[in-house]
């Protein structure tokens, strides 16, 4: 079950909200949320619900052992308990997500040595395992660092791990950030209304924009790795996918934050207009913020951060970006996507260091700032092509995007430059799609916050008029989104199995 579905919006969510808000106390409310979260997960993964429950039990008992050992000043036992639990968590993630990829890599070496190949293993990936595994690891590490954070209620820890608003696609929530809300929270009508507002906004981003971009880029990328689609369609697919993945993922994060508010929780932001970034470093401060901060606090800093020299810091960053790519998927294109971002960040830092050494303190001209932002947007869009396609497919798409196919005309007929029937895609590149492109470009930049800031500085009459317009607009977005979903329109979700 996903948030952008009629089943969830019209049946599951209203039922859970009704039962939850009828409960007399917080213990009962937490129990309802935990059961609802298990039902939500079991809707699509009836067998893997037992894997999640086993994982919760493992980390609950491990947390108690770590806290008890720390309280008794038995740091060695605490470290062993922490290491053992982290290894088991990562082992489960490896088996279900990376075992098949490991077999592929092993077969490359076995084939070179003329040794019989391993049988490929393709297990069904449990939904949300990448997210809840990282949350459980952060819980164990936080308990090791501060034993007072240990959760003695298995219900509360189970709710933290399985909380359905952020179970499938995050944001990745630190236990230290949400412990107080699990044990004591208060929900007001205003807070609930803000949750509905945020959910509707995210639903519109997902259904009305991301799905429209998906129609075009998925159709083009279906043929581009094997057929000649031309530079125009290749570039359309490139920017369509860049907008699709942003509105798909940020829209889902908005819905998760909005749903959490409906139940009295306040989750941190996961996106901050990443396509307005002025550098790759800035991009990663704005894109999937919860994942970036998780790797910083639990990988980069423990590895030494930037405290052990420039070369060590550079190596640590490459480790982080290698793991970031691998976290997104068990395939070479994800690994190189992560390393690509790491390489661009290193080049930027070398450039910044050169400027600082030259003692250039004057700010750059405004046109250079715009040019720099445009360059970052182009870099990230090109890397999204690698994220979306295989290494071989990406190379073929880049050849077409940059007009390099003419010298390779001799490859025609060898499954590379077969002509693509453009009539298959032209109906999708419609006036509606062009409108969505412009709307998506505007909404991916901090236009709305600037408008809201100006409204807040205006008089009360302007603020009331703006509020009325905003709620009417969100009502239209909700109606249009539900109509689109009821009509059975194309509704993929990129991060469904990450």
What structural keywords apply?
globular, 1% strand, 2 strands, mainly alpha, two-stranded parallel ribbon, 498 residues
Tell me about this structure.
There is one protein chain. The protein has 498 residues and is mostly helical. Helices cover 70% and strands 1% of the residues. The protein has a two-stranded parallel ribbon with strand order 1-2. Helix 3 crosses helix 4 (75-112) and helix 8 (189-223) packs across helix 18 (460-486). The relative contact order is 0.11. Residues 413-417 have low confidence and may be disordered.
- If helices are DSSP runs of H or I spanning 4 or more residues, what is the number of helices? 18
What are the secondary-structure elements, in order, as H or E?
A: HHHHHHHHEHHHHHHHEHHH
Assembly state here?
Answer: single chain
First-residue to last-residue Cα separation: 15 Å
Mean pLDDT, to the nearest integer, reads: 87
Instruction: Report the β-strand fraction as a percent range.
Output: under 5%
